[in-house]
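[09:14] KT: can someone run the structure on this one? pasting the chain below
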Amino acid sequence: MAKVKTKEDYYLASQWTLMARKLRKHKLARVSFLILAIFYIAALFADFLAPYGLDEFDGLYRNCAPTHISYTFNGEHVGAHVYKLTKSINKQTFEVALVEDTSEYYKIKWFVHGTPYKILGFIPADLHLFGLDKGSNGGEGARIFLFGADSLGRDIFSRVLLGARISLTIPFASAIISFFLGIAIGSISGYFGGVTDIIIQRIIEVIGAVPQIPLWMALSAAIPPGISTIKMYFYMTLILSFINWTGMARTVRGKFLSLKNEDYVMAARLSGVSTWKIIWKHLVPGFMSYLIVSMTLGIPGSIVGETSMSYLGLGIKSPATSWGVLLQEASSVTDVAANPHKLIPIIFVTITVLAYNFLGDGLRDAADPYK
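[09:31] RB: done, structure tokens below
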């Protein structure tokens, strides 16, 4: 009886239910979804997770390597702690280096009060996940840098978390805009055909023929100089949307060309159903799962686009931060050779792009009716 019920559930299940069942069987897609969920939650609560703010720096710790965390002090276990760094000059080479002052330790504490911030932009708070307590001898001034510090003495770990807000949301927002823009223009092109289709396809070909980097440069040149970070965020979202809608439009056009003469569409026309209702109620829902898969697979390109624009100095600029800005600060080969920890942000870009690609592959397999 249970088997019969299972079969009935399978044959009566909706397309979305079947997709969800198949997706749960795709291990890489599940892991990728979990990784992306962690990244987006971390970006949402970045102020709480980051021990320092964007404007905090200490010139003493310029280009400091990741902080060494110790657990014993003079042979006695005292818990996780760090030592304050002090400058030391090599009298033979006259090189300045940072060395640990092991005469005093600073315990790592959970839930400490620090730099003020606003939760979701309007709730004042100053609680951070972790930080340093006062020194064992009552001293202050030590710092903890999990990923090291940049050339100004700013915490790279905090900047990676805070930069994720821009690097993860701009591509997602631009993908959504491209999604709806591509559906609207592609449906018009495929459904009406004729001169309308020819004009739209030529526009798509012109946009697609221009290399992306010169196109980014041309569009970025139109952005007024000295604008706020919020406005730059808006402009970058529009630029990426303008570039990426063409692929979705062609996909929708191809689907419309194959479906617009189907019997159920002809029946809707003969029944007097309006053109826009046929498009949005009868045609688009029939392959919506395929479109969502296409959008998911397009997000990695947008992430690389935003990172590349910021890296080239065409997008977000310091003191605001994104993963591209962090990589721009590590663009010197000699600087990276001396401070390899500055390349840590590229790990997060790579993981995010791979996670979206694996999730998109899982969605594509789940949406395939022949599997």
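[09:33] KT: thanks! DSSP finds 14 helices and four strands in the chain.
[09:34] RB: yep, looked fine to me
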